[in-house]
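Quarterly update from the structural biology core.
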Amino acid sequence: MLRDKVHVNIENWENYLDNVLGHNWRVSKLSNYIAELCGFDPEMADLIEEAAYVHDIGKIQLNPSVLYKPSALDDTEMEEIKRHVVLGIHAVSNMYGDDSLHMQVVKYHHERWDGNGYPYGLKGTDIPIVARIVAVADQYDAIRSRRVYKRGFAHMETMSLIYDTAGTFLDPVIVRICMANEFALKNRFEHLYKRWSMRRILINQQYYQNNKPVKVLQ
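Predicted structure, tokenized:
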């Protein structure tokens, strides 16, 4: 199935990079949860989850040395990072089509509520709701997770940073909904992080013992 092939390719990239392990999977699951908090039915939330999994698919084609850089990026390197949206658009167009939810997520998840995002500079509700949901999930996981260039932040620190960007970077309504359910969000993230950590142990064991493939997390 296309879904499984895409998931495996993204996981292989994550395993190689080692800087974003589990990020795409956790963002997809958090997007599902936030979508339900926003009033979407479970079926639609599942579709948003699947679309969210590929939000950073364009990064597979970027230079790993830029993604893995342990210090601040210069202007040229930031422009290289931004290319992942255009690269993702081409990939998703070929796989899922231009009218898919996947396309909405990939195309618009770096737009900002105040219009200062990229690549199109969309503002407010002109940004599709699915992309606004994924943007919140993406920020929460990125802030909480350890990266080569930063420590992982605690939940309260993360929510404070997200709150500060409501109405500028992120949709203020979605942020308020998350704030009202913040401890459930915290527990959801920590459960997902634990599941991924346990899976990493299994991957390493199977790789070193008999190199058997590991089933993609559902």
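The chain has one domain: 2-209.
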